[in-house]
Design brief:
- Helix content is about 45%, strand content about 20%.
- The chain has 2 domains: about 160 residues, Beta-Lactamase; about 160 residues, Heat Shock Protein 90 (2-Layer Sandwich), CATH 3.30.565.
- Strands 3-2-1-6-5-4 form a 6-stranded antiparallel β-sheet. A 5-stranded mixed β-sheet has the order 8-10-11-13-12. It has a two-stranded antiparallel ribbon with strand order 7-9.
- With about 400 residues, it is α+β, with helices and mostly antiparallel strands.
Length: about 400
Amino acid sequence: MKKPAKPRNEEERLKALNKYNILDTLPEKEFDDITKLASYICQTPISLVSFIDPKRQWFKSHHGLGASETPREQAFCAHAILKPDEILVVPDSRKDKRFAENPLVTGEPHVIFYAGVPLITPEGFPLGTLCIIDNNPREVNQDQLEALKALADQVVNLLELRKSNLALETTKKELEQRNNNLLDFAYVVSHDIKSPLSQIIGLTNVAKMDYGKILDAKGNQVIDLINRSSLKLKALVDGILNYYSGDKILIDHKDDIELPDFFMEIIEFFKNENGESCQFEFTPEKHQLKINKTALEQILMNLIGNGIKYNEKENIQIKLAFRQDEKFYYFSVADNGMGISKEDQEEIFELFKHLSKKDRFGNLGTGVGLSTVKKLVERQNGQISVSSTVGEGSRFEFSIGR
């Protein structure tokens, strides 16, 4: 028996093999289907997908054979990868000096006939073979060899797909970790910035009440400026926290809610905040929904809140509507506010993108609220859109997967 030599590029070949993370993995139907088909086409009892590592020949799929590996020095496939551009065909191993005394020939599984197609990576490294084995001497025709070559190409395609999926999974985990780190940072910001901000806001209010009368106009302006800047920064911090806590919200289980009772809860909040200046209209029909209540609440609070803030009318009107089909729940929030220009409608859902106009209280937006809404909607397999006319109002429509 002649022991197989090692390829010249053995070190690089093994590195290429390890990148696929295929060794010692569980059986997979896609590989087993290929070996089954190879045996059927070539009419052999055994077919293998094998990989050659430093010490052994390991079988990812072993049709017709109970073993999962053999020593490398006994592997026919270790010879096959030495000439990756050729198909190694051994009609009768008992007459071949390389294999005549091989334990796999003289004993079980009695490898008499062998044909192996090297599995070549796109970079040109032979990882192993797709091979067929018989216990009797035989030949294979050209059509069978071509079919075997085509099946070997499919094995390589599966390997490439596997490597791509592994890379995507690694990237996904890295992004999730970064997002978690960012979320942790956001909560640190919440603690370390919001508390001092609240103190500054409180102190400016106290200063205004206690010392406003004895301060000159410039002193009062400074206090007002500090107060407004602090409130704006606090709103931005709150918005960022809401945006990055969106993923956590979506982990929660779905709740049973009933319309229009759910609408009424939200409406009552805004009525308490804004008095009788807001008029609400909503769908009166009763509907039982199975939905993430927290996410829906945050979406509606943002959209209704914007409809009130960016509204210069004396009587603010907000209309809520709902419908459903077999796959989605559909909601809409319409207002009679300032409206949004055509050019701005494409950008308002981008993070930190805000319009230059001030709200009814004289504040600029943070550019976080609508991006949070879009994120919550899309993570629930839905979509959101806006239609608007400047000076007349806006209508936001969104769907949520059932």
